[in-house]
DNA sequence: AAACCTGATACCATCGGTGGTATGTCCTGG
DNA sequence: CCAGGACATACCACCGATGGTATCAGGTTT
């Protein structure tokens, strides 16, 4: 190890990673909620119909679409299946452009 | 009967996609774990170093990489940030031709 | 007006992921 | 042989997401 680089990296990020992650997750939850609402209305489904298809409760759908909670991957999978879609989760390297 | 099926199974699950979703989520968790492990080793980081960067515990990293648990979106965000990457979650239409 | 559907909110119980600690195993270096 | 690092597993406590129910507001229909 040259100059304890990972310690440097840690120190550099320690102050913002948690906050940044929380913000990013919240934003992601919001965007996913919007997308699901769009897909649902596109099909003319009510929240109850979608909740039945996904095995969720109607309140859960409402919370999710409002961005009130950060959905879990199993939930996203069920929603994806209900929409006959595929769930894609990827860690993509930030291109240095 | 051995032949049976997947057709029957698929037909039967038309109304309950819970099993399929659980399986898909587990597979997704496994693949994400593999990817994170690859990215971590690529950088020569130990689980402990990554745990420090993400604010997670080393056991949490181990469980995650082994696919033992399905990670939450905030956790994935923190890992993405630690790797200086971006997290992409999308519901893509399956559009079977 | 009443009956109905839709979506949003509140409350509570349960489940699953995580944090923390401790421990076990394997490997490498002293 | 012993010491240390790395990874895995076990146990427990806490927290967040979900399930379920009930309730409320808004709109539509009769």
Describe this structure in words.
With 97 residues, chain A is mostly helical. Helices cover 63% and strands 9% of the residues of chain A. The first copy, chain A, is built from five helices and one strand, in the order H-H-H-H-H-E. Chain A has helices spanning 5-13, 17-42, 47-54, 58-65, 73-82, and one strand at residues 85-93. In chain A, helix 3 (47-54) packs across helix 4 (58-65). The longest helix of chain A has 26 residues, at 17-42. The radius of gyration of chain A is 18 Å and the shape is globular. The first copy, chain A, starts with a helix and ends with a strand. The model of chain A is unreliable at 1-14 (pLDDT under 50). At the A-B interface, helix 1, helix 2, helix 5 and strand 1 of A face helix 2, helix 3, helix 5 and strand 1 of B. Strand 1 (85-93) of chain A pairs antiparallel with strand 1 of chain B, so a sheet runs across the interface. Chain B binds a DNA duplex (30 and 30 nucleotides) through helix 4.
